[in-house]
Amino acid sequence: MTIGPHELSQMFQAASARIREQHTVLSELDSVAGDGDHGTTMLRIASQLAAAGESSSPKAILHDTGWKILGVDGGASSSLLGTFFLGMADAPECEGPLDSAGLAAAFESGMVALSNQTRADLGDKTLIDALLPAIGALRTAAQVRKTPVEALHDAAQAARAGAESTSKLAARFGRAKFLGEKTIGHQDPGAVSVALLFEGFSIALTESKGDKVNA
Question: Domain spanning 5-209: which superfamily?
Answer without folding.
Answer: DhaL domain (1.25.40.340)
